[in-house]
Design goal:
about 325 residues; alpha/beta; Rossmann fold; 8-stranded mixed beta sheet; 4-stranded antiparallel beta sheet; globular
């Protein structure tokens, strides 16, 4: 990938936390382990994994909410660790987020017009009438009537609220949107409408997306490339076509069979296998207990090197030749 085309890049990012364990004791929670991926300008990367895989922690690191324990996060080729006050201000304007439940991120005392006006009044030197006009344009951009500006969040449906959240995220004309499960709380029919809106906005505005989801269908529709995350590691990385047409890692194969992912169920025994504890990671592959291709060596040594097919499709596995699994 051309360096100039990367809007965001993570290199060997680790994230660890000290957590309480009894009186006066702590343990280290290993939440991310050597995460690396990049997003091209105007493209969408899907980050896919079940609950507890590290998606939320990755989001916090990408948004600069907390610095990584190790590794580097770069925006437009410059590491966030080198940012000063002015650069952070620019970053906050250019990188916006849309979350799963927009109602939780709105002040219930603010009407929609005030919600859209707030980022403009803080970050743009615009007169009141100019901001009001901009708010109306934002509502129309996401398929809502400007008349909705006088209504309050509790008066809207879930799909309408998500459109308002997208409008607010677009207020400062961002270059990158972090979409954290933006359609998972919506009805199926409404999901399609929001996904089409995001698709059209990207095409029109040339915005880049980091799309975080466990909904395989929406990922396939919206994303250009996909990173599969499990237990804080990227276990497979490639184009959307590569991931869906030739899934290499056994975890990816299970995800695609599950469709919408929360926790995976063993088809034979009918039991749910929990993700290993982040405070006591196994010595070998963290997926070993759930893998139907697991070899004894997989339980002893953790995989650290990716296998690449020469076409940008990477997988992290020490087991059998993936080509023999299919």
């Amino acid at each position: 990938m051309n360096e100039a085309a990367k809007i965001l890049e993570l290199k060997n990012v680790k994230q660890q936390y000290k957590v309480g364990f009894g009186i006066g004791k702590t343990k280290t929670a290993h939440c991310l382990s050597d995460i690396s991926f990049a997003i091209e300008e105007g493209k969408t990367l899907g980050l896919v994994g079940e609950s507890g895989s590290g998606k939320t922690t990755t989001t916090r690191v990408v948004l600069g909410i907390e610095p990584p324990t190790a590794g580097e996060v770069s925006y437009r080729g410059k590491s966030l660790s080198t940012y000063g006050k002015k650069q952070w201000k620019s970053f906050r304007e250019e990188v916006q987020a849309v979350f799963q439940n927009p109602l939780d991120s709105f002040d219930p005392r603010f009407c929609v017009g005030q919600i859209l006006d707030e980022p403009l009044s803080i970050n743009r030197k615009l007169k009141r009438e100019e901001r009001k006009k901009k708010a109306a344009e934002l509502l129309e951009m996401v398929g809502l009537s400007p008349e909705f500006a006088d209504r309050y969040p509790h008066e809207f449906s879930g799909g309408q609220l998500q459109r308002i959240a997208i409008a607010r995220a677009l207020a400062l004309e961002p270059k990158l949107l972090v979409l954290d499960e933006p359609v998972s709380a919506l009805d199926v029919s409404v999901r399609g409408q929001i996904l089409n809106l995001l698709h059209d906005l990207q095409k029109d505005k040339k915005i880049s997306y980091l799309y975080i989801s466990h909904d395989i269908a929406s990922v396939r529709y919206l994303c250009d490339s996909i990173a599969i995350i499990y237990f804080g590691q990227i276990v497979e990385y490639g184009s959307t076509e590569q991931i869906f047409e030739n899934p290499l890692h056994p975890y990816t194969q299970e995800l695609l069979r599950a469709g919408v992912v929360t926790k995976l169920t063993d088809e034979v025994e009918g039991t749910v296998h929990e993700v290993p504890s982040v405070t006591a990671p196994p010595p070998g592959c963290p997926f070993a207990d759930r893998c139907r291709y697991c070899a004894e060596s997989c339980r002893v040594k953790k995989p650290v090197e990716y296998t690449e097919d020469g076409k940008g499709h990477f997988t992290l596995c020490r087991g059998l030749d993936p080509a023999k699994w299919l």
